[in-house]
Design goal:
Elements (H helix, E strand, L loop, with lengths): L9 H14 L9 H7 L1 H9 L4 H12 L5 H7 L12
Helix pairs in contact: 2-5, 4-5
Amino acid sequence: MTDSDPTFTGQQAATAQTALRKALGLEPEQFPVSAFIGMVSDEIEQLRAQGKTDDEIAVLIEQAVGVKLPTETITRFFASPEKRGHQGQ
């Protein structure tokens, strides 16, 4: 990658993927709850470090995506840094 290469936000990547799947006649990609929580585990870890509880994080997720998750779901499917491949980073 060079300095002139563009960068993209996660939202832009999701928007592009949705548009490409639509052009292919495919439905939006769906993820099981375990994969979804794994995807946002970096942010969950950081919020926990700031003192947020899993109850508070569940509310933030519900407000963002409109899906109510039991707190236990976050606790159960949280991916540790080791599982996310962040060893020693």
